[in-house]
Amino acid sequence: MADENRPGRMPVDEARARIVAAVEPVDAHERVPIIQSVGRVLVEDVAATGDVPPFDYSAMDGYAVRAADVRAATDRGVVRLRVVGRVGAGEVANRPCGPGEAWRIVTGAPIPPEADAVIPYEMVRAVSRDGRVLEGHPRGFGGWDGSETEVEAAIDVTISVVAGDDVRSRGEDHRAGSVAMRAGTRVRPVEVAVLASLGREWVWVTRRLRVGVLSTGDELAGRDHAGPLPPGAIRDANGPGLMAMVTRDGAMPVDLGQAPDDPEAIRAAFLRGVEDGCDAIVSSGGVSMGDRDMVRHVVGGEGEVSIWRVDLRPGKPFAFGRFRGVPLFGLPGNPVSALVTYDLLVAPALRRLQGETLTNPVEVPAVAAVRLANDSGREQFMRGIVRAVQAPDGAITWHASPTGSQGSGLLSSLARANCLIRVPATVTEVPAGGALRVTLTGVAPLW
To answer: Are residues 309 and 160 in the same domain?
Structure first.
């Protein structure tokens, strides 16, 4: 049934944009070893001090040749080249490759001067000094290392190549002086590899954020509670789950513990976060319309609530504001709602606080694998699985289907999901095969 109060709720995209615009990147930076920069955000442009790679090198095991020498090579028109030496990885040829010559070369070895292409070793026939074709050779590709395999004196080439074939060119990854990474880039393992390839040992990044996490609710059992739960009590999944999300997003979670539905207890927890230097505070529970929902009132008493209630399912009860100047996110108490609203509304703000250039979640077009219904009157983000499906003509599309029941207390449905299926508030049904969009959870926003 549609919610008659929908006009009073803010659309998800508007809420996210307003939240991101309301926060500014922290102004403290630190210099860290590159291996410690994973998950952090660069505050400097990183330029290449030299060409990467620093020389032309072979992409294959084979023979470095002059492409012009083998232009006439075909299955019926054999071109014979003299093999004048071998170049291994870390070695350099002691002279150029002359006309009618070839150098045996291994992957990663520098291309000899005047050579401009590589022929894979399996595409030639090796010839001995007395003109015999070496059977089974050069598949063993031995001999030059001192093994008993006979060394070829020449090769018969039966395939033509063009300049650049199987050659990795100097500077094709990065040119000297070019910017390899921009400030505002979040460092992943691949960025660490790039930094290492540039010769960087240290890098400047935003200091690690401190994000306080608080769980509220009279019904919460202590996290150290063992054995059967008392009547009416539940375990606190939100606190550990949200702290894990904060860690995933490159920040340091500060455990503010649990608080009952008591304004003084909640206020005291928020004050601990402020005094502990938290850059943001995330709480769960206490933001709905019930008699014991106190978070919004506590925040409003010592700050402001600028956003309350979002046109979202799961996650309508959501608050954003500031408590004593610190950005505060009040998330719903239901575990799925808490984690979904974190991904959609909190994570982009934390990316902004860390100085990341791109903040919005990654969305891609998809096709509904099954019929989807939305009778909530709100924009719905269903927990789903998206798979790549290849059509007979080779075209690939993403097909999305929900993970089952969408109850906001069912963490199992979120644990099975790799995306959120987005259904607008004005759409009550998406037929199987219908177009939609999916949000890829936990994927870096690179575009």
So the answer is: no
Average pLDDT over residues 123-139: 77
Q: Which domain holds residue 235?
A: 6-23+209-353
Look at 224 and 412; give whichever has higher pLDDT: 412
pLDDT-derived band of residue 295, with 50, 70 and 90 as boundaries?
confident
What's the average model confidence in pLDDT over 38-50? 96
Does pLDDT of 17 surpass 50? yes
SS3 letters across the chain: CCCCCHHHCECHHHHHHHHHHCCCCCCCEEEEEHHHCCCCEECCCEECCCCECCCCEECCCEEEECHHHHCCCCCCCCEEEEEEEEECCCCCCCCCCCCCEEEEECCCCECCCCCCEEEEHHHEEEECCCCCECCCCCCCCCCCCCCCCCCCCEEEECCCCCCCCCEECCCCCECCCCEEECCCCECCHHHHHHHHHCCCCEEEEECCCEEEEEEECCCECCCCCCCCCCCCCECCCHHHHHHHHHHHCCCEEEEEEEECCCHHHHHHHHHHHHHCCCCEEEEECCCCCCCCCCHHHHHHHCEEEEEECECEECCCCCEEEEECCEEEEEECCCHHHHHHHHHHHHHHHHHHHCCCCCCCCEEEEEEECCCEECCCCCEEEEEEEEEEEECCCCCEEEEEEECCCCCCCCHHHHHCCCEEEEECCCCCEECCCCEEEEEECCCCCCC
Can you tell me the mean pLDDT for 274-294?
Answer: 84
Q: At residue 245, does pLDDT exceed 90?
A: yes
Domain count, the chain: 4
Does residue 447 fall inside a structural domain? no
Give the model's pLDDT for residue 237: 94
Same domain, yes or no: 251 and 302: yes
In a shared domain, residues 231 and 346: yes
Q: What is the mean pLDDT of residues 166-175?
A: 97
